[in-house]
Amino acid sequence: MDNRGLPRRLPSVPVPADGESFPSWLSRAAADWQIAPGRAAQVLGLECHPSYAGVRPLWFGTALTQRSLQGMEAATGLDAQVSQTMQLSRYADTVLDFTGRDQPGQQEESYARLRNREWALFTSSRVCPKCLASAPVWPLWWRLGIAAVCPEHRVLLVDTCRQCNARLGSGYTGHPRGLTTRHQILDLDLCNNRRPASRRRKAGLCNQKLAALPTVPVPAELADLQQRILDIADGGPAWAAGSPVAPAEFFAALRFTAAVVRLVATPDEINSCAALPDTAAAAFTADQHERQLASRGGGRSQLQASPPSAAHAAAVLALSAPALFAPDRSTCQSFLATWMDRAISLRRRPGKSDPLRPIPRPACLDPLVRAAILPASRVAGVLASRPQTPPSFTADHLPHLADADDYTELIARHLPGTAETSGRRLAALALARLSGATSWQRAATALAMDPVKAARVTNTLVQRISDAGAFWRDIERLGARATERGLIDYAARRRTLAELTTIPHAVLFAVCHPLGHDVTVQRRRHAAAWTWQHFTGGDVREAPAYAPDLWTPVGMTSVREGGRRFATWLPEPVARQLTAYGQALLDSPTPGKRGA
Fold this sequence. Notes:
Layout: H1 22-33, H2 37-43, H3 66-76, H4 80-84, H5 107-117, H6 129-134, E1 149-150, E2 155-156, E3 194-195, E4 204-205, H7 220-233, E5 238-240, E6 243-245, H8 247-264, H9 267-272, H10 278-293, H11 310-324, H12 329-347, H13 366-372, H14 378-385, H15 404-411, H16 420-434, H17 440-446, H18 451-461, H19 468-485, H20 490-496, H21 505-512, H22 521-536, H23 556-569, H24 572-587
Antiparallel strand pairs: 1-2, 3-4, 5-6
Helix pairs in contact: 1-2, 8-11, 8-12, 10-11, 12-13, 15-16, 15-19, 16-17, 16-18, 16-19, 17-18, 21-24, 22-23, 22-24
């Protein structure tokens, strides 16, 4: 170190190859100086993580900190731009987004976010064994998530070593102790991944010859596609959907189309793609299957995740290319329309929401995607186009939940996998639309229904309706049945019973005492909730008797469980008594506060 704390100038420094990655150059430099890679990092003055005893350079191979850049310049004499072009940050304005990297005091947090978000290999690399047979230089682009094929040798890149089963290029970079500083000179022809000790061998470095790793040939079409995408990654001209775009927008479009094909690509599409070797098709299909089986999110199940292998990356590129490189907007939109139809059909399956909602839509594709998606008014639009005879009922004649038996017989088949209460609520809202409400929101207002609950069922359940015409025909039949039974003013009932929070002790005692049952405050409230539901046709959980402030500090979950047990227990004489009491309240000309 000199008096400024910078490393001394080294007498000889290997010249970085064009496009070489920093870990590759460091390994070559260490071999040239006949020292270990960790010792080479120290000699170069790289800034290391202060919390570890080992040599762990900050942002190793991803970006150079200011201190590391100063050390590199002092030790090697290399121009700062040369050192920076060996880092993944070289692609910050094309393939990768380094937004937030420079937040003071948050280097580790921002690095973790970058690793989780971006399509890159931060602690390993893919390789072309045929390239390494010529020279021990690992290009930087091998560390991109889109790295799939060697354009020169037309083979799939290799991800893992067949001997140590670790990702290639890991070395010591992913190990807590960091880069090794032991006096061990690397043989650059070997894998050199760290292998822990086992019963059969001592700890050491993997000695698999890289040039001997098997490769899978690919068609020239796929190799040309890879080169085209690499040219855009290097800042070359980019086109998407027939229009010129900035490289960053192109890769945003690639990530979006990749997410879509991961979700909806069919086996026929995958197997019929002429550019894909069988290995790539099998890898993509296996990843699809694994994601579909995943019950929760995670790196492997997320549609936005970086391709986990070169084979998977090849499939993503090949399947996305027809839409992404379509010669015009109409051709691109035809692909998107097919894919989005499948995506929407997945949303209609039980328990499924829109998996594409978190995926940012690039500006170049957004209008095409919007045009490809059926409008949210698809179901309501069918209603508007149908010739209608005004029904004899109004929203006042509708309960908040359609009749349970009628729902099961007529409507449930349109809403597969839907909870009965939610489906009955949607049916009631549909009846309100039939009676004249011009939107789902206005239907909820006409019914005086909780707007949040109404929006929840209409936003989610409407997407499950596959045959909108048949749905509305059955809703009309549902309304006809209610009319045949005799119209009831449910709105008036809801107003009359809006303060029914408890049944008078005397009313219950008269019927419970002979049966040997006590009359408690809780039982009087559960009885009030049952009575309210019986006459209003609403969700018992919304009964005035179940207002949270009446049950503190008792949790509402236990309260509703108590209500369920009450309904199961309810003897016929008690039910008759409650029905008579409720009817008397409705017949009373001067309704006041209910219960005493």
